[in-house]
Amino acid sequence: MNELQEKTSKNELLDNLEVALAQLPRVELPVVHRFTDGMYIREIQIPAGTMLTSMTHKTQHPFVISQGSVKVTSDNEGSEIYEAPYTGITEPNTRRALHALTDVVWTTFHVTDETDINKICKAILEPQDNKHILEATGKEIPCGYTNSLPNKD
Fold first, then answer.
1. Are 58 and 90 in contact (CB under 8 A)?
2. Alpha carbon of 76 to those of 10, 83, 129, 134: distances in Å?
3. Threshold 0.70, pTM exceeds
4. Which has the higher per-residue pLDDT, 7 or 83?
5. Model pLDDT, residue 121
6. Measured distance CA(61)–CA(89) in Å, rounded
7. Which of 59, 87, 111, 141 has a 20 to 30 A CA-CA distance from 40?
8. 88 within 8 A of 25, measured Cβ to Cβ
9. On the CB side of 142, how many CA atoms lie within 13 Å of its CA?
10. Cβ–Cβ contacts within 10 Å for residue 97, how many?
11. Residues paired with 78 in a beta bridge
């Protein structure tokens, strides 16, 4: 299997996971956005037992797990359990599957002077087509960086 086929199949696996997760009850994932001179800081709170996927990152940036324990699976990291306190680096083209083993606080740090969240998303994340979720569930489910507080049915 060549590298392109392997990467495609891993993205398909993550897409399939998203479809399965879309069938489950929605979980609220509170997000705090902070800005300092030249930096955007995003903190997400993930309740214990929650499974989720990340979007694909364009940029290298640090992250900190300041609370909890989380199982992370990605091309770059393999499958690891990270426990607070933990500091890591997200590499470009990283897309993760996560399973919060306990309540988790995950914070990312992005060098930018921008303060518009939508513009920041375009700069740091690859566009994501969620049609696989719509096709499987028959409904549009808001997902992604700017929709971390899902609508409750």
1. no
2. 12, 18, 22, 28
3. yes
4. 83
5. 87
6. 6
7. 141
8. no
9. 12
10. 19
11. 74
* Confidence bin at 69 (pLDDT 50/70/90): very high
Let me know: does 100 contact 46? Beta carbons within 8 Å.
yes
User: Which residue has 């971390």 as its token pair?
Assistant: 148
CA–CA distance, 68 with 55 (Å, rounded to integer): 21
If you average pLDDT over every residue of the chain, what do you get? 78
* Alpha helices for the chain (secondary structure H): 3-22, 117-124, 131-137
Both structure tokens of 65 = 């797990």
Q: Does residue 66 sit in helix, strand or coil?
A: strand
Residue 91 DSSP label: P
**Residue showing tokens 């479809």:** 19
User: Maximum CA pair distance of the chain?
Assistant: 45
User: What pLDDT does 84 receive?
Assistant: 98
